[in-house]
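Final report, results section. Input specification for complex C-07:
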Amino acid sequence: MKQNRPIALALRGVSKRFDRPAVDALDLTVYGGEFYALVGPNGAGKTTTLRMVVGLLRPDAGSICIGGIDALADSVAAKQMTAWLSDEPMIYEKLTPYEYLEFVAGLWRIEPAAAEARARELIGWLGLEPHAHERCEGFSKGMRQKVALAGALVHDPKLIILDEPLTGLDAGTARQVKNVLRERVRAGGTVIMTTHILEVAERMADRIGVIAGGRLIAEGTLDDLRQQTGETATSLEDTFLALVAEQVAAA
Amino acid sequence: MSEPASLTWLASHEFRLGWRDWVSLVTAGGRTRARNAIIGLIAFAAFMHVFAYWTVANYADATLSFDTAALVGITGTLVLSWSLLLSQAMESVTRAFYSRSDLDLILTSPASARKVFAVRMGRIAAAAVVIAVLLAAPFVNVLAVLGGSRWLAAYGVVAAMGAVATAAALALTIGLFRVVGAKRTRLIAQVVAAIIGAAFVIGLQIAAIFSAGSISRFAALQSDWMLTHVPDTASAFWWPARAVLGDFVALAGVVAFGIGILCVSIALFCRRFGEHAVAAAGVSSATVRQPRWSLGFRRRSPSRALRQKEWTLLLRDAWLISQTLMQILYLLPPALLLWVTFRDGHGSFVVLIPVVVMAAGQLAGGLAWLSISGEDAPELVATAPITAHRVLWAKVEAVIGMIALIFAPIVAVLMLDAVSAGIVCGLGILAAAAAATVIQLCFRVQARRSQFRRRQTSSRLATFAEAFSSIAWAATTALAAGGSWAALGPAAVAFVILGGVWLVSPSRA
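Structure output:
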């Protein structure tokens, strides 16, 4: 069924080296309308991979296509349909959430009326109404993350890429963020998320990619991953640890 | 080895932290940087000794047979230096209050908090004394070599000035905490510190303009009015000046006063320091509402959105405004001189033009750093569908627009006096601002806006290039306004500086 969907993101032979290889000839395909979770141990290359996708890093080799557009050749067109949210929300202390969203809408050239309607909707969904016109300087981390998430969604991106978006959030805020992401996927958007919280990947993702040593070592639904390890009744955590242990042994 | 949690043990801990802070400030890590920093410091020290020789060599023979004019001159210089020390000490005290760092550890440990804070205040005083002595050293050394070892007594005076400045800074800052509360003290203390640093120089210049039509700060100090209204030469008021000239009784008095007042301040304030530090740590940013919902989103291009964002962030940050526009304070005397000149028809605008151009260059450098390097959401901007070139250009436009807005009134007033001079001044302002912006572009780094004060330490090369470029453009504009072809000389120097910056800039690599 997934083969009938358009490809939202395709990475082919993508490599990046710092003092050692961070990402090593990585191939990855994510389909439209899919929730894809990328999991792996610390230093596995998850964040580097996603930073290359959104244009924050340039790969040493390989190609990146977003919605059929070569992101390395036409980065502006690729960025037009992409949103990025990191674990450390980067917002402007002296702007209000409303002004922040207006600024983001300006950067993405969104029609003001449509952007404003979308901003109001997001502010409502994320429970930010009481603070919509307060400067962000006094906000908690959870509030900031919600503002940053609203900024990522206000231009209605086809592909949303999130790096550990739930780190440091309380249960209520984490649930709001997860609900908004589920809603995006239901509406046809594609979400790619890295996470260390394996339960989140297990519950939310359509497919899970396990990355270690800069390579994709396993991919599929939770059942697919279990089959790869030969254990059928284990949790994602057990499966993940088994897969990574195999990779370490092989290395 | 000292007893843990004793005064000496705490002092050695503070000393180690202070030393490491200083080393990292100078070297920013790395051996190459450390070597370069040492070479740079030696070169700077040599340059300062040459500068000191140029400025004070003629006074080396001054003796203890004081006349009032000499005492007024020396005292004026000491007060000027002390106001700058006080300004620096207030900055340090305020920073110490608001830096949480190890506060939780200190207050949850069984060590005496009063002892810890007393040592911390001592560290601030030691830093102020060391800075004062280092800055005075070239002048004192030159005077001692040329005029005899008695001039070394000036080191004692300078150290005492550092101690008194710290004591005054502690009293002022703690006074502010009591009067305006922990929430507002940070901003007000920093603004007050900057004003104190500038006020004495500016005040003297303004007095000089009214009394002698000159911008020299010494004109007011040597005026008849001043010489007839100061205390008698036998007064204790002149002890610091007499100590500088080698009067060892006066020196002993000055040093004892400095140490005494510092010890009393530390003893008086160490408990309150802790209380206020706790209050400062508990301060959360006040909720500021921006009522604007009814206007709705406005149509704007990405470039306009970026420009608007830069202007909004700057205008809403009182601390940044105080830091960047404080340089404008130095424009008050020349602006006053312009007014006096314009009123009297002297036409001495040539004096004003280089000052204005220099200020524009320096201000543009600060604004350019904020706009280009001080981006608080770099990943948002980098992942937006707009080219990096367009982003940079929009930020440059924001800087130049702000400079144009600030300096347009001065240029307009100049044009009322002499149109050609106004046009040349306007072009000089734009050139100095553009050059400072280009230098910041070449040395751009990713930083938070709150790190603005440390921008000069992140690249000293950029700081010096910015200063020399502004000086070159100031000279170019002054000579061009005077109709001299010699203006081409400093203009060429300005371009050579820019070329050099481009060649060595990290962004090119």
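The mean pLDDT of chain B is 82. Chain B touches chain A at residues 284-293, 296-302, 304-306, 308-309, 312-313, 316-317, 376-387 (CB under 8 Å). This concludes the modelling results for the funded period.
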